[in-house]
Amino acid sequence: SARSKTLTRWAFPAGAGLDAGQFKLVWADAEPAESTITHWHAGFRLTTKVLKLQAVDAPAQAAEQIGERRAVHLERLRYADGHLLLVVQNYLPLSRFERLLAFEGLATTSLYVLLKQEFGVIASTGKRTIEIGRADAHVADLLELQPGERVLFNRETTFDQDGRAIEYYESWHH
To answer: What mean pLDDT do residues 121-132 have?
Structure first.
């Protein structure tokens, strides 16, 4: 499909690589000609639509992972070159990140960049599980699928530079 071709247009620059446990910032800006051995640019542009930013009672799994019941809930749609790619729901401890509720730029600003700039929090490590799941009615509606269709399901708890949980998130990819 046209969408799958769009998502495979980017390769690592010649001679580039990642060691085990290494992280790399990749600019998803549709400017692959700007890539160098140290600065990587993808051949597609990622964009975001914020659906929800609110204080909530977190679902049990999220509350357990972030260490508190009250959370900042952020729900977003992510696109690659305008094609819907995934739904992501983040839950962050409200006691630490309540000021996020007033921020209006999460459609164009990285959550991790914002956490670093505004809170001095650096996303340093995480525990991730990836599996094949089924889209519930809400996720299926957002991804334009039928309820119960298979999706790539990802859940992660992210920790800061001090080992404290800063978020629990779930994402559904199609």
So the answer is: 94
